[in-house]
Amino acid sequence: MFKGWIRAAQLRMKALAKRRQLERDLEDELQFHLAMSEEKLRGDESRALARAAARRKFGNATLLKEVCRDMWTFHSMEKLLQDLRYGARMLRKSPSFTAIAVLTLALGIGANTAIFSVVNAVLLKPLPYPDANRLVMMFLQAPALPLARGDMGDADFLALAEQQHSFERVAAYKASDNGFTLTGDGEPEEIPGGQVTAHFFDVLGIRPMMGRTFSPGEDRAGRALTVVVSNQFWREHLRRDPQAIGQSITLDEQSFTVIGVMPATFHFGERGADELWPIRQTEAPHQRWPYFLTVFGRLKPGVPLTMAIADATRIAQSVTRQYPVSGVAGATAVPMKQVVIGDSFTPLLILLGAVATVLLIAIVNVANLQVSRAATRRKEMAIRTALGAGRLRLVRQLLTESVLLGGTGGALGLALAYGCVKAIVVLGFDLLPRVDEVSVDWHVLLFAAAVTLLSSILFGLAPATRTRAAKLDESLKETGRGGGEGAGSRLLHDALVVVEFSLASVLLIAAGLLLGSLVKLEAVSPGFQPEHILTMRVDLPPVHYRKASQTTSFYRQLLEKTESIPGVQSAAVAMSLPPNLLEVENPFHVEGQPYTPGKSVTLAEEIPISEDYFRTLGVPLIAGRFFADEDRAEGHNSLVINQAMAERYFGGNAVGKRVQTGDADPKSAWETIVGVVGNVKYEGLGEKDQPTMYVPYYRDGWAPWFVYSMYVVVKTPAEAGSVAAAVRSVVGSIDASVPLTKVQTMDELLSQSVNAPRLGAVLLSSFAALALLLGAIGIYGVMSYAVTQRTHEIGVRIALGAQQRDVLRLVLGSGAKLALIGSAIGAGVSLAFTRFLSSLLFGVSPTDLLTFAGVTLLLMAVALVACYLPTRRAMRIDPIAALRHE
Amino acid sequence: MADTNRTGELMQGTLDMLILKTLTRGAMHGYAIAEFIQQSTENVLRVEEGALYPALHRLELRGWLDSAWGLSENKRRAKFYRLTPAGERQLADEKAHWGRMTGAIARIMETV
């Protein structure tokens, strides 16, 4: 039975491919039969009579052929093809409708697919490690600081590795801000990477492509130095050598043996850019800080997160008992994916909501156009009904047309999304986590297909439901008078326009708020003069600069030689840079305050700088003095603080006061405040002014260990970039092994610091503009249609003495009414929803009256412009022609 | 799909069986099959073209017949049908079924 069915299907396939052949064969076979019977009958009759008799005897040849042909074909599939062909013909017949509908849908589906591909990569996909949901990160907590997710120190990691019960294994990673300096392979080069402990790759669950990963115990002090390299590093620096394992490379002036090469699919570190993972060898610590270890582990199967949290907390508290001054209260554990996603959840969800809204408007728009078309096609439908098409057949035809329309729009949208995804990856590279994983994969394709199908059905249903209203006799009798469209259909049109305008209003308000925030943010004064400032970063290799005098000598030479470059006004070095490149915060203790170790710590940004830093940046002096040569003298512990700190902790009168900095310790040295300067933003333009302490970079305790990496700032009278090459050769002339990186002007730094809010505002504004455009097209379409439908009525009104302005009021009035109702609903909805935006807003209230009013005015203006053409057409109606229109 | 009114006096299953039986004599075209049935039943059974060709195509699709184009006795291009092994098995089945049916019917007709 089944075999027979397959055979039949095969034969039918063959017949389908040779459609004409089947047709000819049938014809030939029946002709042959006719000829045979004709010959037989010819004996007693003439030729013509014989043929007639043969035909009579034969019966209805056409029907017979049809019956036989049907047998050879896939009936329902051919019907579908027929519907598709018919649909395509109908769509071709109204090209402007088709173009608008397809474009509208392509924009809607494209935007959704693009944003979904980002959401898919960032939020939905598991991290690219086996069983990634068992990966958990651990952080120290110190509510007094306040510190909710603080990195761990060596003491914490070692205690955790020894005492935990929840994990198969734990590992630590120490990010290297500037990577490792690779020497011995041409120019010294900074290669991104991070130090890792022995079980790092085991916890992640990734095997090397070549060689091995670290073995247990390899992370103890005194063992040989080994490194695992990325596939990219192997290709670019080891020349794809199959014998690379066992070779030595020099990183930060130390020799490491390459023991493994990771597969090309393995990525780790910030934006997955790491290329080197040297072993981190830990000695038994004698203090808890510094805290710079990212610690994570792989949960044992079935162990819940709560157990890991309890484990981490218990161990951190036991470490605190060992080091009571640290102020750490406990620890927490967070799924690794949650840490990686960070705070991109809300913005992405808002964007997804925005594009979904755009798509909804697009669907409403196409539905609207379809309803108008359905009304003009009522006669066609009526005739087809009269010719025997069932209602189901007509609905099927309409839905086929919709799917055809949607499919075309979807395909175009997918192409659009493909381009957008590439743009998003470029634009969002520094702003989005996991951006390297964004791609159009099969999840995205499936999403696009589902959205396309769903949209097609949604906008296809509107006209399909209207076929019921197409009463056969009435439609055929109808003479094309405007009254043909019932009140129900007009109400549907109006409702759809109102929906469009309310959705567009919500989007516009959200975009308006974000744009307002961006404008406010960019107008914030960073606290200095950013013009004509060049910034760079130097990284001294620690092995060559073991003594403070060595670092100090390097920087002094660098600054002297740089200031002597023609065209350089002044130059300075600093550990942190405005507007958002803060490196260090430090606790401090004001002299005379009660002293309780481990409790109520006050924190300030602390920045080692050279003497000319304030002059170079143009930071104003408020009181006292800047640093001077006298501060270099032994025992001179001078400090300059900012105005915010002076006001908050010294009542505005800080010069001459003393503080202790660093971890609470009554024995540490006192530092004297010699000057107060203006506030400078170091944590982003949107942040409040924080207390800041400036300290000379050559001070004990900072040099040499903390000043290996410093920013160089150079003030020029003209274009800042012009001196970059000269500074580079200065650095090379002092020490050729020191790399100079991140060469940028201060203006660029300022602009980049608002990249994230700018991208959000730009994206949301584009979507809102799209929504506005679609809304305008929608109201234009509906109003033109209404004018066409009411030509007769308007003609009668004019004939009865209505003035042009009455017609104007009639058409514009009804358009404006719809727009106003829509905007009002949109504003109401926005009032309820914009508070979800508040984490993204700066200096603008989520219910900002100006934005709400502005958007409503904008929508009204757009509605009036969109209604202008139909109104003009209505005003020019010639009553005679309109009445003859019958 | 097929117009059942046109099967005339012959029930569909019966026509199928007669076609299969006729083709045990060798490959034949549609006209010859109709003629043969008509002549061998001495014009008692007349095969309507409207039933014959749908039946032939149906049997071919089921795999009981095979077809090929060839030259007829008067040198015309004609479509010849031939019994396939599956068709022979089907004929045997139908023959047995037919025997049981007629036997049963005959017994009723004789006893009453």
SSE map:
The complex is a heterodimer of chains A (886) and B (112).
Chain A: H1 2-17, H2 19-41, H3 47-58, H4 61-72, H5 75-93, H6 95-124, E1 135-142, E2 147-150, H7 154-163, E3 167-175, E4 180-183, E5 189-191, E6 194-196, H8 200-204, E7 210-211, E8 226-229, H9 231-237, E9 248-251, E10 254-261, E11 276-278, E12 294-299, H10 305-322, E13 330-335, H11 336-341, H12 345-376, H13 378-386, H14 391-427, H15 442-466, H16 472-477, H17 487-522, E14 533-539, H18 548-563, E15 570-574, E16 585-590, E17 602-609, H19 613-617, E18 621-624, E19 638-642, H20 643-650, E20 658-661, E21 671-677, E22 692-696, E23 709-715, H21 724-734, E24 740-745, H22 746-753, H23 755-789, H24 791-799, H25 804-833, H26 849-875, H27 879-884
Parallel strand pairs in A: 8-10, 17-22, 19-21
Antiparallel strand pairs in A: 1-2, 1-12, 1-13, 3-6, 3-12, 4-5, 4-9, 7-10, 8-11, 9-10, 14-23, 14-24, 15-23, 16-17, 16-20, 18-21, 19-22, 20-21
Helix pairs in contact in A: 2-3, 2-4, 5-14, 6-12, 6-14, 6-15, 7-10, 12-15, 12-17, 12-23, 14-15, 17-23, 17-25, 17-26, 18-21, 23-24, 23-26, 25-26
Chain B: H1 12-22, E1 28-29, H2 30-40, H3 49-62, E2 65-71, E3 77-83, H4 85-111
Antiparallel strand pairs in B: 1-3, 2-3
How would you explain this protein's 3D organization?
The complex is a heterodimer of chains A (886) and B (112). Chain A is of the alpha+beta class. Chain A has 4 domains: 2-73, no CATH class; 144-328, no CATH class; 344-522 and 755-884, no CATH class; 541-737, no CATH class. Chain A contains 27 helices and 24 strands. In chain A, α7 (154-163) packs across α10 and α12 (345-376) runs antiparallel to α17. Chain B has a single domain, classed as Arc Repressor Mutant, subunit A (Orthogonal Bundle), CATH 1.10.10. Chain B is built from 4 helices and 3 strands, in the order αβααββα. Chain B has a 3-stranded antiparallel beta sheet. In chain B, 35% of the residues are buried. Classes of the chains: A alpha+beta (886), B alpha+beta (112). At the A-B interface, α1, α2 and α4 of A face α3 and β3 of B.
